[in-house]
Amino acid sequence: MENNTFNVAVLGAGNIGSEVITRLLELDKGIVGLNVKKVLVKDKSKKRAISADILVDNFEDILNDESIDLVIEVLGGIDPGKEYIGALLKKGKAVITANKDIIADAGVDLIQTAKENNSCLYFEAAVAAGIPVLKPLIESLRGEELSKVLGIINGTSNYMLTSMEEGSSYDDALSTAQELGYAEPDPTNDVEGLDAKYKAVILSLLCFGVSPSSDELFTDGISGITKEDFEWAARLGKTIKLVAQIDNKDGFNARVHPVLIDMKHPLAAIRGALNAVVVEGENINQLVFSGPGAGAEPTASAIIGDVLSACHQLSSNQTNWYPLREFKGEMKSFEDVESSMFIRLSVNDEPGVLAKISGTFGENNVSIESVIQEGRGDKAELVLVTHEAPEKDIKNSIDQISALDSVTTVTSTLRVYV
Questions:
Q1: What number is the average pLDDT over the span 55-82?
Q2: pLDDT at 1
Q3: Which of 73, 72, 45 is nearest to 57 (CA)?
Q4: Average pLDDT value over all residues in the chain
Q5: Nearest Cα residue to 146 out of 97, 210, 96, 69
Q6: What is the distance between the alpha carbons of residues 293 and 72, in angstroms, rounded to a whole number?
Q7: Which of 61, 183, 205, 241 is deepest in the core (most CB within 10 A)?
Q8: 277 to each of 198, 218, 379, how far by Cα in Å?
Q9: Angle 281-240-196 (CA atoms, 0-180°, nearest 5)?
Q10: How far apart are CA 337 and CA 250, in angstroms?
Q11: Shortest CA distance to 42 belongs to which of 17, 19, 70?
């Protein structure tokens, strides 16, 4: 710090980086004195709305500049950002990142590096962009024993599901999301739940002290959802959301998949590109954090909040991290998680079909909560909702039902949030 002003460097000057730099330059000096000293870019000759005097193309120019107090990483991807963050923390510099991929991949190690070097690491924007949820989890709720965390933590998929609830097809919803810039040309990470999975790993670490691997975290996306699923959801007083669910009841499990959720649940009201995180615990009952979960402006807001926290913390020469939570309990595999399932079948309209299907469920210790039969002849449709049962028993039931001669197609399966 020089003359009560903190020197800042930014790694990356893309959409988010440019927005962050603009916000830093416009920040009220009465709040904190900041000087944007260096910005790392690949090509210094490219025209930018940034003074060429502060552009550098060599990371070492930032790493070895002892006058730089804090560094904001907005490069995207895991490499080389992960290596850069580790090196900066070892130098005692505060680091702020919005990079969920890096934190999901190496969060435990980077936090430990920060603690060992009395440096600070912040990543509020990595999970829900403009929603201030991580700081409360890390600080305000650190003394609470949490039992469950639910999240709509991907704005693209939530925008698409909202559009489909309003009548759009999947393809039309995706096309519009791409036109608006919510979805990438290759939308796989968003629509198949991968983006939400990375964020669920971060929430698992902060809330329960567990960093599940990709294999341990079951993930299913929204590409199989149809307008007809939404029509049935409405008839049942529910809607469909892509939800990250993390709980530690009778064993820890984290998972991401679409759910039928009651219209009275707080997550049902989260529409468009908004995100929300619901945190539950014995003493706090239920807390809901919601707001804009994507976009350069909300992300920059979270980063600026972290900058202010870092400037305050730098004066103390201490890390910003309490000890991470210690995992208490046992891991539970996804196949042992108990779920309620909505199942839509096309069946032959003949005597004994329902009895065969019910019998198959019974043989697998799965009980049926409700049954609706519609149509006749070739268009007969059977809709069932099961009581909660282990995932492995429900899967076995569905596999066996699919093989019945009287079942034409298993049209849809969706888990029901209970």
A1: 96
A2: 64
A3: 45
A4: 95
A5: 210
A6: 19
A7: 241
A8: 15, 19, 40
A9: 60
A10: 10
A11: 17
Q: Which two tokens stand for residue 293?
A: 């979960």
Sequence length of the chain is: 418
Cα dihedral 123, 126, 131, 136 sign: negative
Residue 382: both structure tokens together = 């059977």
221 is written with which tokens?
């996306």
List the structure tokens of 22.
């603009």
- 238: Cβ contacts below 8 Å, ≥ 6 apart: 260, 261, 262, 263, 268, 416
Pair of tokens at residue 86: 């580790």
- The model carries a pTM of 0.94
Residue 279, SS3? strand
Tokens 């469950």 locate to 148
In terms of Cα–Cα distance, which of 134, 138, 139, 8 is closest to 74?
Answer: 8
- Please report where in the chains the tokens 């962009």 appear, as a residue: 129
Which residue reads 């019945």 in tokens?
404
Cis bond before residue 266 (omega within 30° of 0): no
Q: Which amino acid is at 410?
A: V
**CA 326 – CA 302 distance, rounded (Å):** 27
Q: What's the rounded Cα separation, in Å, for the pair 93 and 116?
A: 12
The one-letter amino acid code at 17 reads G
Cα–Cα distance, 153 to 77 (Å, whole number): 18
For the chain, the C-alpha Rg in angstroms (whole number) is: 24
Burial class (CB in 10 A: 0-12, 13-18, 19+), 321: middle
Q: Are 138 and 305 in contact (CB under 8 A)?
A: no
Asked if the model's pLDDT at residue 170 lies above 70, the reply is yes
Amino acid at 129: A
Range list of H helices, 180-238: 188-191, 194-208, 227-235
* Catalytic residue positions, numbered: 199
Contact criterion met (CB below 8 Å) for 275 and 153:
yes
DSSP-assigned beta bridge partners for residue 97: 73
Quick one: which of 229, 207, 415 has its CA closest to 324?
A: 207
Two tokens, residue 405:
């001669």
Render pLDDT for 8-30 as a digit per residue (tens, 0 to 9): 999 999 999 999 999 999 999 89
Q: Are 21 and 13 in contact (CB under 8 A)?
A: yes
